[in-house]
What does this fold into?
Amino acid sequence: MSSEVPDTGKKLVELARSVYNSLKTGEVPELIMPSRNRDNIVLDPMYSVWRYGESKVTRSAKYVDGAEYILKSLYMIEFILEMIKGSKTSTLREMYYISEGWKNGKFGTQDESDIMAEDLEVITSLMREDFRLRPEENGASVIGNLTIEEKNRKGEFKRINCKDDVGEGGYNIPYNVDQEKLKIVSSDADFVLAIETGGMFDRLVENGFDERFRSILVHLKGQPARSTRRLLKRLNEEQHLPIYVFTDGDPWSFRIFASVAYGAIKTAHISQHLAVPTAQFIGITASDIMNYDLPTDVLTDKDQQALQAELKDPRFLNDFWKSEIEAMLKMNKKAEQQALAKYGLDFVTDKYLPDKLSGPNDLGE
Amino acid sequence: MSSEVPDTGKKLVELARSVYNSLKTGEVPELIMPSRNRDNIVLDPMYSVWRYGESKVTRSAKYVDGAEYILKSLYMIEFILEMIKGSKTSTLREMYYISEGWKNGKFGTQDESDIMAEDLEVITSLMREDFRLRPEENGASVIGNLTIEEKNRKGEFKRINCKDDVGEGGYNIPYNVDQEKLKIVSSDADFVLAIETGGMFDRLVENGFDERFRSILVHLKGQPARSTRRLLKRLNEEQHLPIYVFTDGDPWSFRIFASVAYGAIKTAHISQHLAVPTAQFIGITASDIMNYDLPTDVLTDKDQQALQAELKDPRFLNDFWKSEIEAMLKMNKKAEQQALAKYGLDFVTDKYLPDKLSGPNDLGE
It folds into this structure.
């Protein structure tokens, strides 16, 4: 995958030209891509991450649906080429509204345009960021001894240390963290701790965890945005930093970990750029709930279903997860990471995290 | 209201002592405070903001409920005093979990502890930030030519220019923006533009609106956090900057404007520190939807009910709002600020905002 703008433009023009050429030679234009269905997801043995399998779908202009799909793709390609030319970017929502001006090409819902943007990624092996498209919200934060250079609006690189040059709120991760936009200059840290909730991120910042344990703290903000996962991947690869994931203890948090470590179904075509298979889970487990006698909530029906689904999910197929998921189902309880405050505001940094980071649990995953 | 720690501690100790003294002299302890009911909200004629009226409630130890309430308040006061001593802060959620250790004082739900923290504000005329309590998430961003100094973890003030010293994500507003924590050093701007959605905030940043129109851009992030509203108030008062509010066109966005301009019911006891009565609405109106033929959605039942409620809300009692709310009900449609993208990515900065900022509409409020 390249993130250089000229290549992106070239690839998109080629795609449009292939449709044009089909029409010129009297063939029916079609677009072929991997099926993005749950059934077509496999764990890549080489990278240990999700990717799409061999099953394909064809969008053919032979059918009205397919013809409309191809038309809309061409409008989208034109819009992206305009943005490249004008050095613009757009939110996915803006692109949906922009399509109001595309005769016969207007999207019915934003879901439709979002999925088409992902399809274009799949077809071209490029990334949404190359298309200059961004999600509505990003804004997860980083605090720690990490120095980066971010390209500003004037095209100059601005150097920022994520400990000394920022306020208490930390450094805001921009939507695009590829090499062209963000350079990782240096880090004086031993590991990265990715944290699910803002409350816990702030707790570790206040308790000076990043300085005491030479770490970079990254707020995941729930299910992490692409840019957050990609930055974790780059910190892991370029700075050789291990990634630890600290979440609540419930099935949704386990999924957050899995998406960091192995990728998500929606983005399986770019897992190799987003997923960190060596990431280690140090979030709240069923064992922690018992051992620390944490305040809990009862599992809802949806929680139970999600845990049952995880038992069949290839990403959770090992002894650690099997026993933890079964234990959680049996005790019928879940707990939040902030529940550790039962033992005071310092318990998480004085006891819980040091134990997890040195104990056998961190090898469980 | 003072934010000096010793005063906060002193006031809280006094409150605890009053309970102790009642008990010693054989009286039944009680706490008296304004009723925080919707019925007891009045528009303060002096500040033009919401405040509580004359109606009072008494929590008396004569009743089991009242006795428990007073006991829990004392535990909470003790916890706050400990935080002051240890230079700690806590999320509201952490405090809820901390209460697990309070015999007979454990809160049933976080709602209960959140409301009690607000009650303590009302009783002491202090603010939650003085109690070192913070919400789970803050993190709205600022971009523009504003220089502030924020106190870091080591107690040193760090100078940050919100245009030159930050990345594309901007400066993250910390949870506490009082004088002790954050100094506004200078701003080279003519006005502040507060923006509802992240997508639109990013659009204005990319289009260089802050430089072309000498403005400070503040992301409201939906219904704005206290810290965001307080920063707007301080920019208005200390830097004499007018505040413009740019939102979607729906009843919930009108409420966002009202909470910035006149305060919210939940925080009516501190409206004078949070609300900017001179704030002007330049969000999407029913007239805009018609004049610009914007893409719309049909009003839901809840939207309609909210608009009807606004017609009776004293904060919307003027000709501008009456006619806009009635027009929206009549057309039965709403629109998002990003719907302006129908006319391209530059329309909002080339046409919509310049018109609104110079037109008669900005005097409508």
Remarks:
- Residues 64-86 of chain A form the longest helix (23 residues).
